[in-house]
């Protein structure tokens, strides 16, 4: 039995997802949605999508993946609020598990990550221009079917000097298509711009600190370790902190005065995504005749 979700927005499932072996979230699939769903259910198409939001488990409790590290969710109702059950937000407590995490997604094949590293991992920021660095890994299809897979790269922070940090920040994503047993190097080109944040005075700031980069959603890379061992692809240790993370040390941080305006930052990843879409050959005429905004409306 597979649970197929046809909905314009997330609906609380009240434990239904825990009682089914598979959940297919299609939201509003459009006129050809029936065909697409049938091909996935019957195995004619290998699914590769990732959830673009955090799917809540409790009603009215929305904890996005970029929430502050101090924000938690308490299971059960607050004292004096009626019967037990449900959940509510609180400054700090034991964190509630969402129904499905941001970036969750399955496949009929399996992928593993190995050789996660950042280079150079010692950066000196002088204030004149951003310092570039790279994060790379090897993705291997260890299953019996070809499939597509999107690698997500997150910045993970537990503290900042001038503001409460987000639990995680999505720095980049890269889709690969792999045949069975095929491996491929994936490299993300980053800079110290990607490590900055806006402090309480709305100044863009770069801390002198050790930054942790994680590939995949929380627990995703760690879950791949057993599959990697079975495929003979195990890294140097069994520790997910070493196998799934890379660190970069930055010296010479401070207030950044030469970066774009603060209000432009939310569009950085969107612009990167649109550039990738319109770079496809089928958008050649559109690129020549329309601005970026029109390409987004007409081509997506």
Report on the structure:
By secondary structure, this protein is α+β, with helices and mostly antiparallel strands. Helices cover 16% and strands 31% of the residues. The protein has six helices and 15 strands. The protein has a five-stranded mixed beta sheet with strand order 6-14-13-8-9. A three-stranded antiparallel beta sheet has the order 5-7-10. The chain has a three-stranded antiparallel beta sheet with strand order 11-12-15, with no helix packed on it. Helix 4 crosses helix 6. The longest helix has 11 residues. The chain is globular. The protein starts with a strand and ends with a helix. The relative contact order is 0.12. The C terminus is likely disordered.
Question: How do you describe this structure in short?
Answer:
This protein has 300 residues and is of the alpha+beta class.
> What are the low-pLDDT stretches, counting only 5+ consecutive residues below 50?
79-85, 289-300
Q: Strand tally, please?
A: 15
- What class would the helix/strand composition place it in? alpha+beta
Distance between the termini: 32 Å
Shape: globular
- Main sheet characteristics: 5 strands, mixed
Specify the helix fraction band.
10-25%
If strands are numbered along the chain, what order do they take across the biggest sheet? 6-14-13-8-9
Note the main attributes of this structure.
300 residues; alpha+beta; globular; three-stranded antiparallel sheet
Q: What order do the helices and strands come in, and which of them pair?
A:
Elements: E1 2-6, E2 22-27, H1 33-41, E3 72-75, E4 87-90, E5 111-119, E6 122-124, E7 132-141, E8 147-156, E9 168-178, E10 183-191, E11 197-198, E12 204-206, E13 209-215, H2 220-230, H3 240-243, E14 245-251, E15 254-255, H4 268-278, H5 284-289, H6 292-299
Helix pairs in contact: 4-6
